[in-house]
Amino acid sequence: MIHVDTLIAGATLVTMDETRRVIADGAIAMTGDRIVAVGKRAEIEPQCIARERIDGRRFVATPGFINGHVHLTETLIKGFIPEHLPFDEGLNRWVIPLYQGHTPEEQAIAARLAVLSMLRTGTTTFLEAGTLIAFDAVAEAVADTGMRGRIGRWTMDRAFAPDKDQTALTDDAIAALERDLAAHPDDGRLIAAWPLLVGHNTNTAPLWQAATALARQNGLGICAHMAPAQDDPDWYLATFGKRPVEWLADLGVLGSHLSLVHMVHVDQAEVELLAQSGTHVVHCPAAALKGGYGATSCGLFPEMAAAGVNLLLGTDGGDTHDLMRAGTAIAGLFKDARRDTALFPAEAALEMLTVNAARAMGLAGTIGSLAPSHKADIVLHDTNRPEWRPLHNPVAQLVWSADGRGVHSVWVDGRRVIDNYRCTTIDEDRLLAEAQSAAEGLIARSGLPRQSAWPIS
């Protein structure tokens, strides 16, 4: 007999373990921050003396999902930026000024709202997009939410104006990264800093190399935006005579520590460099669809998968942080684009949300699976809902029928952070009121017009 903290008995388990077992009438036992037993209920339950027993018969259990790319502080502007804008205009006239217009308090509120959105829809771990301005305020704001994440500041150093001191800009950026890593080390704590970069054409070769050295020396990762639009490869070809991934390869900064985000406008030679180096690629389907990036017409994501590139998914901006919707999107986009229903089946989509993402986070064998010795990051999906009934194939239905609204309970590190659809670590009503007030103040200060095709009176 073993004494455990919590036993979930009777659930259908989508384990995502090495053999990808799906266990009907299963059981999971956890003690402290770890899973200690997984299997058939008839085998596990008699072995356990549980402090708390949960009747899991109405639930499908999965590992916690892992969001490979999320802008924590974009939540206050959801629905405000017009969707018809060209990429450059939307980014430079709307997104960046609104980012930079946040006060530290507003950034903190926005980040907590993003965390709440993720936890409520089954995400237990995230990789921030490297766009935090009030970095310390955000780190403090999310530290007590119970979520696991890697965060980074808005790091760019390229001197686009001739009067800027390039050396000073680069030195300042490196020093800021070093301060963040020292203040928030990745030493087992839930929220830690990584040397994240904005990407595109905003980072110089010395900064790329310095950030890579920091990552490799400390066992950390890097992510950076690249090639959502044709602008990035055009700029690199015009400036260096090389495509972006070729330029990064020549710098020696590709590798398993690096996740490149979006990566819509790449060619086959770049795909091969990604595969050879072990560099991960984060696809954000919702951003691609809303932004008209051309992912379905130009994107080589099926070719990346065939070459062995590790693909994972992100929600990107603040419109939605329901990662299950990204799983549905990736499972369908390229079936339609290539007229091939074999592309990215539901099983592949779930791998992108779990084990693939754990690998990119440097946490393979620790999160992403329901397996003994793994972290107790567990999600219970409520099947007593119309989108779940009748229940035939839980894997297919997780991707094609369900979404995050059916998430009933979530544990991170063995701590129950969602219980009966409510967060246990955040005062939801207070946060939602704060977010509304903060957003109205931010928009008013920005001077940007409210645009709506239908009048709002």
Automatic annotation (TrEMBL):
On whether Hydrolase is a keyword of this UniProt record, the answer is: yes
> Is the Hydrolase keyword given for this protein?
yes
Q: Which SUPFAM superfamilies match?
A: Composite domain of metallo-dependent hydrolases, Metallo-dependent hydrolases
Q: Where is the Amidohydrolase-related domain?
A: 61-417
Pfam families found in the cross-reference section: Amidohydro_1
Q: Which GO terms describe its molecular function?
A: hydrolase activity, acting on carbon-nitrogen (but not peptide) bonds
Q: Which UniProt keywords apply?
A: Hydrolase
Q: Which family does it belong to?
A: Belongs to the metallo-dependent hydrolases superfamily. ATZ/TRZ family.
Against PANTHER family, the record matches this protein to: AMIDOHYDROLASE-RELATED DOMAIN-CONTAINING PROTEIN, AMINOHYDROLASE SSNA-RELATED
Q: What is the protein named?
A: Amidohydrolase family protein
| Organism from which the protein derives | Novosphingobium olei
